[in-house]
Amino acid sequence: MNNKIKKLIPQILTILFVVLIFGFFTMNAQVNMDNRGIDFGFGFLKQEASFDMQFTLLDYDGQDSYAWAYVVALLNTLLVSFLGIIFCTILGVIIGVARLSQNFLIRNSAAWYVEFFRNIPLLLQIFFWYYAALRALPLPETAEPWFGVTYMTIKGYYIPSMIWENLNVFLSCLIAAIVSIIFIRIYARKLQEREGKQLPVFYISIGLLIILPLLSFLIGGVKLDFELPVLKQLAKTSFIFEGGIALPPELIALVVALSLYTSTFVAECVRAGIQGISKGQKEAAASVGLNPNQILKLVIMPQALRIIIPPTTNQYLNLTKNSSLAAAIAYPDLVLVFAGTALMQTGKAIEIVGITMLTYLTISLSIAALMNWYNKRIEIKEK
Amino acid sequence: MFKHLKQLTSLVAMIAVVFVFTTEAMAKKSKTLKNTQKKGFVRCGVSQGLPGFSNADASGNWTGIDVDVCRAVAAAVLGDANKVKFTPLSAKERFTALTSGEIDILSRNTTWTLSRDADIGLTFVGVNFYDGQGFMVRKSSGITSTGQFKDGISACTNIGTTTELNMRDFFNSKGIKYEPVAFEKADEVVAAYDAGRCDTYTTDKSGLAAQRTKMKNPDEHIVLPETISKEPLGPVVRQGDAVWEDIVRWSLNTMIEAEEYGITSANADSMKTSDNPAIKRLVGAEGEMGAAFGLDNEWNLRIIKQVGNYGESYKRNIADTGILPDRGPNQLWTKGGILYVPPAR
Predict the structure, then answer these.
(1) pLDDT digits (tens, 9 = 90+) for B282-292
(2) Which residues in chain B are contacts of A235 at CB distance < 8 A?
(3) How far, CA to CA in Å, does B10 sit from each of B3, B4, B15, B16, B327?
(4) What are the beta bridge partners of residue B154?
(5) Which of A98, B86, B121, B286 fits A110 for a cystine, CB–CB 3.0-4.6 Å?
(6) Structural domain ending residue among the three candidates B192, B208, B229
(7) Are A327 and B184 inside 8 Å of each other by CB?
(8) What interface predicted TM-score (ipTM) does this complex get?
């Protein structure tokens, strides 16, 4: 009994200390804000934002509230993070595998790539892409089309937009295809377990993915048209493209810089994962008669992923947090719009910075939770 | 024995602290003023480089009419106009720097608005430049008026400014769809516009005139004649120190009134024997004009001698540098402008 109390006392004291420190900070902030005539509150979120944003995914207008501006800016941050994570993963896997290539040229170019992009500060890379690379692009009126219908200009990348008719039919076909693929996979596994037969699941999946949506075009009444960007004259020497989708150069520079930078770290994770599997595994798999494809899919990758996933999660989190560097190049992300413009217009520094910090924390924790779940799924199941 | 000694000393220390605090409260002196005098320099927030207003040269010397306000305060409270520590701030950082106590005066082409004055814990002390927002375009575009703006125009500007809000009001009222591209630093805005990222660059007209001098080829750009907003720019202080607020306000007012009475840095000393009591008050030769601030009587004389009157400051920083040779509304009320300050008496 006495021992228990002895053990408890330091714990209680620590908690008390932490509470007191926070209490002191809160009180200090309150006293100072009172002295300066600043009041604390979240009422400003309902006020009209009255500023515009350059690029939004949802409809936003200056008449909307600060709360809505926050949501729209948050989506911009999520968009950059999402695109960045996808591209850095694709690039990272390719580079990581290339580093282990038998080919001297491929192996060494990959090594150079990694050393080059991971050793230059990210902010400099963002500046390079935005201020040097993208500023050197032509003005809209002198831009040559890429692939015939897209235009890369100093004002952005203009691509055709899709105009759907009966989009819901197309989407339901797509969902139907995905659901049936899942069922076929389950069936194939059972078939193999019961009778030892193997279905060509991969080809069936691809086939379904192509055929079902195609059918929706042929008999479902789905139509797809493209709206092409068209050059429009604003004044004697100033032009823009109208129609289609305009991707602002700020977004492009940010995604390119974040993907290139983070892909080097992902590549190293991938390389470590593959090299972490001993040669014996491969040889053992070959000796039981698996072909090279099966060896990679059934023996190497499941083990390599266990090594790759945890450090790669870190890189995804880094990328998401690094996306806040958007503020340096005018991409309207959470930091620029909410912790920048909104903070300046309302003066609610503590509230806004608090919300922004909580938001990044939530995003990071969600990504971490998702990756941990995936990691749990693939880790060794000890019986 | 020693244990008791320790307790005794801490008790004495506590009493001393309480005593110091109470006497300080009784003296009613400005805390900011006291701190400034203790440090020996005025902490002044300026822009990151706006020619004519606040701009540092290669050797780090700051000049400009916004800089002169801080120099005037330094001359008044410390006796030396050079005892200023300048902190360059972006539009986004400026108010936080002031409210958090990093600087004591914000003299950074800042527009006086109701919400800023009332909400954020700031107090505007006056206007040292009457401005309005305008647009700059490339001459080659053939645009000569904002009436020629069309849907899809892209406009570069700064974030965290009234410019961003005025721009929206303007384009909305005209029913024009536009693409706002907002950067944090003025230099980034200029570079983006200069490279062709935007069709127009919008900010205060004085800012347009000043930034034009930084462009690759200034002659290729024109400022459109329309003014879309009122932008009274002036120095700002933290709310809650009324004496410091008064010191900054009257340092600025002294410069403007000195011009009104023809007192310059060259003739200030000789004005002490003037027949006009208003002039004598401005050079510390009559009345007790510094006592209310806790300053000596020649605080205003030092401002005029070391920094000069408003007209000298304007000429040195804005007219002679070719930014805006015409004073426009920033002329004395007696000469057709709107500079009018309360009398120092």
Answers:
(1) 998 888 888 88
(2) 137, 141-143, 148, 150, 199
(3) 11, 10, 9, 10, 62
(4) B179
(5) A98
(6) B229
(7) yes
(8) 0.78
